[in-house]
Design a protein that fits this description.
It is built from nine helices and 18 strands. The protein is of the alpha/beta class. Helix 2 packs parallel to helix 4 and helix 7 packs parallel to helix 9.
Length: 440
């Protein structure tokens, strides 16, 4: 089975697809429920179905309450035959609430310090893709799973989540221009225009609101995975054309204009313009001019969120950026950075591990070493890469994808905690106490 939900006015419409992949005609019962954020059932219906071998059907249910009494609802569909559960699908939806969106943490800078809700603090975060879908979360998200992940982060003491935004049309351009294959039906929901559809914006709204409800500062890398109108859809390469082609920059600015107008009054957000440009230092002026132009659009529209670039080059761009970001295996190697006028954080720290317990224990030890080393620098934050194994679209067994998958430090595919997650919880608590003692 496959379930999804969407709004139509004040209605909530749920769509469920069921397939009989057996050789016999089957009769079953589909039990459909909607639960509020307290897990109370607010809608329930059962429907009998019969499927011929190979037959696929789509069921739709419409729920139209007099009013929504919460900001999150869980959707559950169970397929039963003779009281035996054959399949189960769960998802959820967010009711966008302006008051909820305004409750995010205020993040500012003062000198080389990060200020969170008007107090000096540390960014203690994680890089994130949804733990089952990876980058596919931007096409057909499981909102329930994202909420569960964010709740787990809050329980861990994390206060910052960084996510790579995949422009929806990028998926289409990637398949047609890079993979050179017809787009799979799974991706038919992807946008056909460079600027996001209402559907894509609602996905982004939901993710931002879910992060804020859990007290997480939301950081989004904007221009790494872009459609052809904004850059090159090939993927994770620097590809300087995106910052020199005026037509592409014009489309980028239209997207920034949209983001700024939509989220300028929403606290708890910081924008990362580009992940790992990988440019020569000779191109710093080009990168700086591009970043200045993008930042100006944000500021002209009243968006005052902190802006950075996810790369060591950001250390040389602090006359434009609000803080710098370092990506590294060894935070200790950056102890030489002193006396900056603005903060820097360790935005990606890498500690890969295979699937064996011995490797996972080594990962835990490396994470602890790197975290403690970061406290001995003037860094204002520590953000490991990444929440879980994630290369769902690119999982092609290449060396680079194996490396990226092995960097997941928090949960395994079955949802169980890895040793590094347990030590990270202890390290975060220790760091908070360390910061309080330091301030005294």
């Amino acid at each position: 089975m496959e379930a999804k939900t969407f709004f139509l006015g004040k209605e909530r419409i749920s769509s469920l697809k069921a397939l009989n992949n057996g050789r016999l005609k089957e009769a079953a019962i589909v039990e459909f429920k909607i639960l509020d954020q307290e897990e109370k059932v607010v809608y329930k219906k059962a429907k009998a179905i019969k499927l011929r071998p190979g037959q696929k059907i789509t069921l739709r249910e419409t729920w139209q309450p007099e009013a929504f009494h919460g900001t999150f609802y869980k959707v559950s569909a169970v397929l039963k035959s003779n009281d035996i559960v054959f399949d189960k699908e769960e998802n959820g939806f967010v009711v966008i609430n302006k008051d909820a969106l305004r409750n995010g943490a205020r993040i500012q800078t003062k000198g080389n310090k990060i200020i969170i809700d008007e107090k000096e603090g540390l960014i203690l975060g994680v890089n994130y893709y949804e733990s089952k879908l990876g980058e596919l979360m931007w096409v057909r998200p499981n909102i329930l799973k994202i909420r569960e992940d964010f709740k787990a982060m809050r329980g861990l003491g994390i206060n910052f989540v960084r996510i790579h935004y995949h422009h929806s049309k990028w998926f289409r351009d990637y398949f047609s221009q890079v993979v050179k294959e017809k787009i799979d039906p799974y991706f038919q929901a992807a946008d056909t225009t460079a600027l996001p559809s209402k559907r894509s914006l609602r996905i982004l709204d939901a993710i931002i609101q879910l992060s804020q409800e859990q007290g997480l500062i939301f950081c989004m890398d904007i221009f790494s995975l872009v459609p052809q109108e904004m850059g090159n859809p090939i993927g994770w390469l620097g590809l300087k054309e995106r910052i020199v082609d005026e037509n592409k920059i014009s489309t980028q600015k239209k997207f920034i204009d949209l983001l700024a107008m939509r989220y300028k009054d929403v606290p708890g957000i910081t924008w990362d313009l580009w992940n790992e440009p990988r440019l020569d230092k000779n191109d710093l002026d080009i990168l700086k001019n591009w970043a200045r132009g993008i930042k100006e659009v944000f500021r002209e529209r009243g968006d005052k969120h902190l802006i950075t670039i996810g790369d060591d080059l950001s250390l040389y761009l602090l006359d434009i950026l609000d803080y710098a970001c370092v990506h590294t295996y060894e935070p200790a190697e950056f102890a030489y950075i002193k006396g900056l006028d603005k903060p820097f954080i360790f935005q990606e720290v890498w500690n890969e591990a295979g699937c064996s317990l011995n490797e996972e224990i080594k990962q835990k030890e490396e994470l602890a070493k790197d975290f403690n080393a970061s406290l001995e620098t003037q860094a204002a934050g520590f953000v490991p890469w990444q929440w879980t194994r994630q290369a769902r679209l690119w999982d092609n067994a290449s060396d680079s994808e194996k490396w990226d998958n092995d960097l997941g430090f928090y949960v395994r595919e079955d949802g169980s905690l890895k040793p590094a997650a347990e030590i990270y919880y202890s390290l975060i608590n220790s760091a908070k106490k360390y910061k309080v003692m330091e301030l005294k």
